[in-house]
Amino acid sequence: MKKTFKGGIHPPDNKDLSKDCPITGLVKLPGQISVLMSQHIGAICKPVVKKRQEVEKGELIGDSEAFVSAKVHSPVSGTIKDINLRSHPVLGRVQAVVIEPSEAEPACPPEQNSFADFSEDDYTPEQINEKIAEAGIVGMGGAGFPTGVKVGPNPKMPKETMIVNACECEPYITCDYRVMLEWTDQFLAGIKLLRKASGCRKCYIGIENNKPEAIKLLRERTENEENIELSVLETKYPQGGERQLVNSVLGKVIPTGKIPPMVGVMVCNVSTAAAVAEAVIDSAPLTHRAVTVTGKGVQKPANLYVPTGTPTEHLIEQCGGLKEEAVKVVLGGPMTGFSVGELQTPTTKTTGCVLCLTKEEVGEAKYLFRQTPCIRCGRCLSVCPEKLNPTKIAHAVKADRLDLAEKHNISACMECGSCSYICPANIEVTGYIKTGKIRIARANKDMPA
C-alpha cells in the first residue's frame, strides 16, 4: 500500500496534455516585460532603478530591507520604460518595473554541464545561504516564501529532515515533472545544497506513483546516495500540501496552526531546488522558470522556459493561441489557481501554469443549476485533509457569524477546494471560507478594507 494521508479527492489529472512536452525556450520575447515588485510572501520590494535606465540581464531592480522578503532581478537586458501599477494574479495591482528588452533572442533552458560534476563540499552552509538570498529565490510551488529565510539557521527550530515536494498533485501541471526528467543533475545538485545549508541529516523526495518515468530515473540516480531517499506516495489531491506531505512521508502530524520546522522538517519544491543549484553553482538569480501552458482551450500545450514578467497573453500566443471554445484562463492549477481578468497579467516566480479551460472543463453545465440546500451528506467532512467541518464554517460565514466560523477553526483551512469539488449541492464551500477569512482579517485590521 502506498503512503498517503486521510481525506482528499481524485480529480482527473489531465496531465497527458503536456507531460511529454519538453521544456523549450520562447520563440520570441514580448515587447515589454513587467516585473512585479511583489512575487513572494513578505515585504514588497521597492524599485532600485529609474525610468529610462539601461539594465542588464540579472541586474537587481527591486529590494527590501525587511527580513522576510526576496530580491527581484531583471530577466532581460533592456531599458526601463516605466515604473507603475500592473495587474497581479492575487493582489489586484502592485508596483512593477516595465522593461523593453534589447535582446534579440530569448533565453534557453540552462545547460546541465556545470551541475553534473559539482560537489557540495566546495561550499559552506553560509556561502549557500548567502547565494540563495542574493538570487531572490522563493518557494516556487505557489506559496512564495523566501527560501533564504526558510533555509537559514534557527536555534529555536532546528531542522533535521528535508522533504522535496515532487508530488505536483494539482491536475494539468507538469513543469516540475519535466524538470525532474530533463534537469535531473541540476535538481539533485539543488537538493544536496539545500540539505547542507539547512543542516538536515536526511532528505526524502516525496513523489506520487503516477510518475513512473521520474520514479525510475530518480531511483537510479539516488541509489548510491546515503542521505537521499525516494518516498513513493499514493496519487491523491492535495498530497502536495505541506502538512499532508509530512504526514504521508514521515507519519508526523503537524499541530494545527504550526509549521513544518516546528516538528524538525523543511519542505521545498522541485523547481526551487533547481533554482538553488543555478544560483549557487552558476551565480544566476531567479529570473526564469518552467511554466506549463495547458488545457483543452489552448491550441498546443507546452512546457516553456519563461522570463518572469512575461504577459500571460504572450505565452498563450506562443502555444498557438486560444481555441474558440476557451472560456477561462487560470494562473495556477484548477483547484487553487486564480482566474485572470486581464491577459496582460504578468507571470511571477510562483507561476507554474497557465491553464486555458473550455466550457466542458470548467463544468459550466453543472453550475447552470443553482446551489441547492446542504443535504448533510458529510462528503466535505470525509475529504477535508485538515479534518474540519467545512459546511459548518461556510454556513457560519453565510449567516454573518464570524465568531462561530472561528470557533470551527476557519483559519486552519488550507483552501484546497476539495469540499467544493465533492459537494453534490454545488455549494462553493471554499469560496465562503475564503470570504470569511478576508472579513475576519479586515475586522482585525490585518488587511485593508
Characteristics:
6-stranded mixed β-sheet; 449 residues; 17 strands; 16 helices; alpha/beta; Fumarate Reductase Iron-sulfur Protein, Chain B, domain 2; membrane; single chain; 4-stranded antiparallel β-sheet; Rossmann fold
Describe this entry's structure for a reader.
It is a single chain. The protein contains 16 helices and 17 strands. Strand 5 and strand 6 (72-73) form a beta hairpin. Among the domains are: 120-282, NADH-ubiquinone oxidoreductase 51kDa subunit (Rossmann fold), CATH 3.40.50; 371-444, Orthogonal Bundle (Fumarate Reductase Iron-sulfur Protein, Chain B, domain 2), CATH 1.10.1060. It has 449 residues and is α/β, with parallel strands linked by helices. The strands form 4 sheets. It has a 6-stranded mixed beta sheet. Strands 2-8-7-4 form a 4-stranded antiparallel beta sheet, with no helix packed on it. It has a 4-stranded parallel beta sheet with strand order 11-10-9-12, sandwiched between helices. The protein has helices at 113-116, 125-134, 147-151, 175-182, 184-198, 212-222, 242-250, 270-282, 312-318, 359-362, 364-367, 379-383, 390-398, 402-407, 418-422, 429-443, and strands at 23-25, 33-36, 46-47, 54-55, 60-63, 72-73, 78-88, 92-101, 161-165, 202-208, 228-233, 265-269, 288-294, 302-307, 326-331, 338-339, 353-358. It is globular, with a radius of gyration of 21 Å. The N and C termini lie far apart (48 Å). Helix 2 crosses helix 5 (184-198), helix 5 packs across helix 8 (270-282) and helix 13 (390-398) crosses helix 16 (429-443). The model has no long low-confidence stretch (mean pLDDT 94).
